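Subject: for your reference before the review

Hello V.,

The reviewers asked for a structural picture of the protein, and I figured it would be easier to keep everything in one thread rather than splitting it across files. Below is the amino acid sequence we used in the manuscript, unchanged from the supplementary table.
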Amino acid sequence: MTTSATAPYESRPIESWGKMKEVRRNIMRDLWATKKRGDILYQGGYAAMVSLPAGLGNAGAFGWGPAMASIMRDPELARRCNEASEAAGLGSDCCVTLRVNFGSALVGIHNLARSGERLQPDFAWDVHQCEAQAKTAQYFAEYYKVPFFAIDIPILPLTHDLASGIKYVVLQMHDFIQWMEKITKREYKDELLVEAVKREWKTSILWSKLCELQKAVPAPMDYRLLNSLAALLVTSKHREGVPELMADLVAEDEVRVKDKVAAMPFERCRLLHEGQPPYYYPPLLKIPRDYGGTFIGGRMLFALHGAWELHEDFSWTVSKTPEELGLPIKDRDTALRALAELYLTYGRMFLQNLQFYKGDEAIQVARGWHADGVVFHLDRGCKGGAAGNVKNRTELQQAGIPTMCYEGSNADPRDLAENQVVDRIEAFLESLGLKKIITAKDGPDEKDD
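And here is what came back from the structure prediction:
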């Protein structure tokens, strides 16, 4: 059944979106020019502590794979990459995003520039903050025949004294810097590290501010736009121009909130999406639009690149700056300490925070962002991200917050029954009392690229 309706909110494109795309294009151009500049190129640096190699100069990072967006636009290619990794020993228990990344090397596109040039990384490294992350970097090291280094992150609840954990991580970072100097035969410049860590912290705080603005009714952005922006931050939180871009987006969103400019002109229902979405199937995140609903974000998306303070009632607020927290960044020692604090204390996604408090936090996030319902992706390709989701769903329901689950995979099309999932989400929306609406105007739909 459908009903005709008049849009209650103004909706217009994000003015800073063009700048975001230009920053992203410049970063990719810079990556493929790494070797021509005579700079260092490495495999890894996925989402955490990405500023560590900055002391080597303008180093290039392959991260989770420069071909990832192209692969997700081509489900058949995504299948090929998954199958190649499986044949090499990376099974379904491994993170599917990293599995696709490694598979792209096995099918010959990972390090292939549009010019036809192939770039050889100088080393591989990563932070071991999920079961698959550093292991996949090790596979890359073996594939490219380059040295490998992993930084181990201890899993500690926030009730534990984190001082020993922070010291443990800082010592490893010192070892990593000495290792990079030895491997690359380059002098490591602490002043470059200091500036990069400052930018990584600033970007993380601004990401949290951008996500906090999603609490507004109507929400100024939707999940798809936030997720596109998050892709830029995976390897680039520390790069010049990124904090400035984030500051522009925050300033624009503050005006949108003040003027009640919405991501979608109809916002009768606000939904959280928990877990990574199926990147190869963008229509999923658009389904609520037909019912006047909007995916405004999710705990995992908000947490992935943010800096948050956790309170006794499990609510979140944007972290103070390092200086306000008594963590001035002025030399190698203070930079490494600030970086360890960012991910062990103020990062709400990984580490100890992935395993503890999720149920209580899920309730507070749903209430804090004024969600009318929560959709859980039981992601077969991200065991850590999906851990506890069934329990969280039960606790949300007991708190009176409607929920639903669907099964799939964020980067393996073989795991998603598209028609079945669409039917389930539409049934859930109808259970919330929503009907399909006929509109003459859709909301802004910046293309995900």
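For the response letter, the relevant points are probably these. The radius of gyration is 21 Å. The CA atoms of residues 35 and 367 lie 49 Å apart.

Happy to draft the paragraph if you're swamped.

O.
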